[in-house]
Amino acid sequence: MPQSTNLPTSFQFSQSSLQDFVDCPRRFELKYLRELAWPAIEAEPVLEHEQLMQLGSRFHQLIHQHLSGIPAERLTQTIDHPNLTRWWHNYLDHGPDFSGFQVSSEIPLSAALGGHRLIAKYDVLAIKPGEQALIIDWKTSRKKTARQWLQESLQTSVYPYLLVQAGAELNGGEGVLPEQVEMIYWFPEAPSEPERFSYNAKQYTADHDRLTSLSEQIIALGRDEEQSPFRLTADERRCRFCVYRSLCERGEGAGDLYEREELLLQEEELVFELDFEQIGEMEY
Ligand code: SF4
C-alpha cells in the first residue's frame, strides 16, 4: 500500500525526473512537486541551443517516419538543413542493422514503482522474440557524450530495467530476460562509434534496488509539509545550466553551450544533460 506523500497523484517517475533528483534534489522539487515554470534560458547562445533542439527533434521524427514505412527518398526531399542532411545520411549509411528484428519506434512502456508509475519512451526497440532485445537511443548532441557519463546516467538503468519489467507483449508474450537486452546509444555525429551496454540479471537486481531506493527517498522527502527538505546541489557547476538559478540565488546568466559540451566529453565530469538530450521523450 503506497504511503501518503505530497507528490501529485499524476506524478510519474522517469529517467529524467530521477536524474534531476540525483543531480539536485531542489531541482526535482521545483520541477515536479511545485511544478514551477521558470523563464530563464538554459544555455547561451540561445539561438544555437534552440536550433540544436529543433534539429534533434526533427531527426527523431525522420527516423520514426522511416521505421514506420515512409521511403527514405521521400523523407530526404523534406530535409532543408545541412546538419540534418549529414545526420540523415549517416543514419542511412551507418545506422543500426535491424535485419531479422521486429522494430518499433517511439514506444512507451511503464511499470509500478513506489505507488506511482515508472515510464519511458523508447526511440527504438528492436526485438527478436525470445532471443534478443535492442534498445536504441539517438543522441543528437553535436559531440559524443563520454561513455562514463552514459554508464552512470539513470537512463542506462531505467530503460533496460523497464523493458525487462514490462516488455513481454513485445517479446511474443514471454518476459524479456536481462541477458537478452542491450542498450545502444547512437550518435549521428559519430555514426561508427555507438556506445553499447549489455545487461544481465545482476545489473537488473542492482537497478531494481537503486530505483526502489530513489523512489522511497523522494516519497519520504515529499511528506515534509513544513520546510523543504530537498537540498540544493553542492556542485554549483550544475546551476549554470539550470533554469532555476536566479530563484536559488545561484547566478543570473546562462552557461555557455560549447563549454557545456566540453564538460560532457570529460570522463570525470557529471553535469546536467541539456534538454535536447531528452528529445526522445517528445511526442510527435
Ligand atoms: S539552480 Fe542549482 S541548486 Fe537551484 S535547482 Fe538548479 S541546480 Fe539545483
Your description of this structure?
It is a single chain. The protein has 284 residues and is of the alpha/beta class. The chain has one domain: Lambda Exonuclease, Chain A (Alpha-Beta Complex). Strands 1, 3, 4, 5, 6 and 7 form a six-stranded mixed β-sheet that branches. Strands 2-8 form a two-stranded parallel sheet. A hairpin with a 2-residue loop joins strand 6 and strand 7. The longest helix has 22 residues. The chain binds iron/sulfur cluster. Iron/sulfur cluster (SF4) binds next to helix 2.
Global mean pLDDT: 87
Cα distance spanning the termini? 36 Å
Secondary structure: helix percent = 25-40%
User: What ligands are attached or bound here?
Assistant: iron/sulfur cluster
Number of helices: 9
Largest sheet geometry: 6 strands, mixed
Which labels suit this protein?
single chain, 284 residues, alpha/beta, Lambda Exonuclease, Chain A, six-stranded mixed β-sheet, two-stranded parallel sheet, 8 strands, 19% strand, disordered C terminus, binds iron/sulfur cluster
